[in-house]
Amino acid sequence: MDVKINLKDTKLETQRFILRPWDESDLSDFCEYASVEGVGEMAGWKHHDSIEVSKRILASFISEQNVFALVYKENQKVIGSLGVHYSWANDVPKYHELRLKEIGYVLSKNYWGAGLMPEAVREVIRFCFEKYELDAVTIGHFSDNSQSRRVIEKCGFQFVRQIERYVKQLDKSLAEMQYILYR
Asked: Which of 86, 102, 144, 162 is most buried, taking the most CB atoms under 10 A from its CB?
């Protein structure tokens, strides 16, 4: 069962991150990492080809209030996003009675391989379980995204299934691996 989560006034902190709602002043940082080829494609969207695209998506982050900006404490830059969304498991009868959300994330290519994303994901999992008393959190990655697979494994998720998913923004079908983590 889907649970309404509003991150508007939420600020979380880890050793290296401040996770907070997006602000219009984040546009430059957002465009900087989202316009790099290969970053968005790992998550199922085309890298941004203009500042107008970044501005439109930033406005949706602000209005929907379900995506954190990942502020790297070392330089105070927004270097990624971490959202809490409708879960694929809501459409699977076996999970209908569970209070669920799905986590999705993107990180600037300049920071890949530094062990940053598991730290942020663990904090959002803790937040979802403690504040919203979710029964489980789901997550997924495309089969060729080994970096996300490693994040998911480090955070303790259990593999559930592989599906073929048509990704409209990329205009192709991809194998998606789906996982769950129970409270």
From this structure: 102
